[in-house]
Amino acid sequence: VMLAGTARAQEQRHPLDPLSAQEIELAVTILQQSGTILPSTRLDLIELHEPPKVQVKTDLANGIMHRAAHVLMYDWSSARASEAVVDLGSRRLVSQVILDSREPPTSWLAFARVEEIVRADPRWRPAMERRGITDDEGVGMAPRSKGSSFPGRLVVAGSNAGVIGVSTWVNNPRSREAEKLYLDIDVDLARGTVTKFEDRLPPEVPRGADFFRPGDRRPALKPLSIEQPAGVSFEVRGSKLHWQNWELRFGVHPRRGLELYDIAYRDGDRLRTVLYRASLSEMVAPYGDPEWRSFYPPDEGGRGLARSGTLRPAEHGEDTPPNTVYYPAVTHDSRGNSIEILKAVSIYERDDGLLWRHHDEARRARALVLTTFHTVDNYDYQLSWIFRMDGTIEVEAVLTGVINSYDTGRQRDGRPVVDGSSLSHVLVAPRVAGPIHQHFFSYRLDFDVDGERNSVVEMNTATIPPTSKRSSDEWFAAQATVLKRERDARRDIEMAFSRWWKIINPEVVTDLGQHPGYELRPGHNTMPHAGPRSAVRRRFGFIDHHLWVTAYSPDELYAGVRFFGVDYVAEGLPRWVQANREIANRDVVIWYTLGVTHLPRPEDWPIMPAHRAGFALIPFGFFTQNPAMDVPRPHPWN
Ligand SMILES: [Cu+2]
User: Fold this and answer.
1) Residue 48: strand pairing partners
2) Gap between the Cα atoms of 440 and 442, Å rounded
3) Which residues are found with C-beta within 5 Å of the ion, ligand 1?
4) Positions of the chain with pLDDT lower than 70, given as ranges
5) Contact between 423 and 582 (Cβ < 8 Å)
6) One-letter-per-residue 3-state SS of 241-284
7) Dihedral sign for Cα atoms in the order 465, 468, 470, 472
8) How far is the CA of 498 from the centre of ligand 1 (A)?
9) pTM for the complete prediction?
10) What is residue 468's DSSP assignment?
11) Alpha carbons 350 and 226: distance in angstroms, whole number
12) Bridge-partner residues for 485, per DSSP?
């Protein structure tokens, strides 16, 4: 019994598991006791100090667990950003580094500081009450940097004079648009005080219409029941998930959101590794309407996908099916308090259409979905990892929520769009313009196909040129090219060659004499349309290409920038690949940029219908036949 219990405890914990609430609090306590955290210090990120892959494997083999926290912080009174590593086992401060920046490391920390200062001012609550707002949680506040656009400089270098304007609005989900609060507020970020507070509420405040039009509902549909009377077919112990032949772990990171690690497939009596780790690494949304403003929010890096308020709990039976099982996540606020979000990760099985069919024999597919919901100001994202019975992993980003908009003053378009028009915005409602923009997601995929040493092969399909033997022009073939160096591995989708990529293990040969591999199959994608000298292209150069391949390095986690306070031109992928490291038959990391170009439609208003984007990881020669031939009949829900 003891042994079984130990084995179970072993299986429940993993060196890559996110910090628990106790670990977050312990890290903060150690930093307070060592004098590293002052009363004016705020905590930007409290995360697992990620051990290198080699240490993770050694620790797992030896059944030991090193736990350390990495903490990124900013002291508002001295305008100093620093990072520290705390060993949680020995309860020691291991290292502290002052960063070469006077700026807060993320816009989130500046948002949190503004909210903290304004909410503590005695004039705030009466001003809210005058507006009929009793719960100010839905009130948005943003630092309005004077003379530069977000994400710009907040603190003037070399000075503590951090006086800044504050924009305020109500995030009323039932209102047509974010309502202005008519408050003129300046705060001193360094001193933590409000220096100006003017209430400019006009006698008649325009209110938006109700989004959901409750009196105007269509008739309800007949019931469709989704039930699993015998329970779900997956099992979760700690961070470990088993479903069908899949074994993987999942956790939530304050910045990166849902992360998967140790993804493996049980193939007979062998447990075969596929991915060491997979997560979103950055996202950025450049806006292109010259009549609006220059704006390219990095919602993952700048705000964080799971920091205070951005990770939204699921609503039972509405955003996921009723057979969903919910799992909590732990994140933290800027004072270092841990926050538990219940229903943070939704896991459910869903009917997945046809698995395979021939003549009178067929099998029904089931998929396992791991999903999270995020609200970043106006926009909403659903980020999913979908596991299939045929060995496929589908990665999906769903975009919904409220588009950014501005008031044109025009009730309607003067003339319909005609031939030759150039559109940088669309009137989506009377007076409301939706500016053109793009969404880019960078996924970091640390493949370990049957082991660490992998290669990436580009596949280009083209006509075989006629020869003297074969004069016909009807032959075509897929040409394989191994990507050998990082700088040659900046690649784009090419329709003319039906281009795709395959991640193989060149040291393993299957019974068919092939290298086991996984295909990265792009879905719909896009290229950046801001020019190459634009701020967004210089700062987030990862959007220049759909595929990047790098040699594994434990510090290289963010395709864009690690911290925003430092001068962040050409950080991340564009900088790393200048080293031009070898990538053939190495431990490699694949980075895929998924893009959506969004010219808003009237149908995107007031709340945008869910728009799906994604790509798939599909076994190609990983198995020696269809791995789902063994699915029993009749279909698996009976
Ligand atoms: Cu959009």
Assistant:
1) 69
2) 7
3) 598
4) 1-11, 144-163, 169-180, 202-216, 308, 565-570, 634-638
5) no
6) EEECCEEEEEEEECCCEEEEEEEEEEECCEEEEEEEEEEEEEEE
7) positive
8) 27
9) 0.92
10) S
11) 9
12) 582
Question: What's the order of all strands across the beta sheet hosting 406-407?
Answer: 406-407, 432-435, 425-429
Distance CA 251, CA 437 (A): 31
Distance CA 317, CA 233 (A): 19
Distance between Cα 22 and ligand 1 center (Å): 38
C-alpha 407 – ligand 1 centre gap (Å) = 18
Which two three-digit tokens encode residue 267? 């193939």
Task: Name, in order, each residue with C-beta under 8 angstroms of 22's C-beta and a sequence gap of 6 or more.
Answer: 338
Q: What are phi and psi of 52, to 5 degrees?
A: -60, 160
With beta carbons less than 8 A apart as the criterion, state whether 456 and 588 touch. yes
The pLDDT value given to residue 104: 83
Q: Is 316 left (phi over 0), alpha (psi -120 to 50) or beta?
A: beta
CA distance 295 to 282: 16
Q: HSE on the CB side for 530, CA within 13 Å?
A: 26
Ranges of H-type helices in 34-171:
53-62, 107-120, 124-130
pLDDT at 157: 37
> How remote is the CA of residue 529 from the centroid of ligand 1, in Å?
14
Distance from the alpha carbon of residue 596 to the mean position of ligand 1, in angstroms: 8
d(CA 299, CA 638) in angstroms, rounded, equals: 43
The one-letter amino acid code at 288 reads G
Separation of 435 CA from ligand 1 center, angstroms? 9
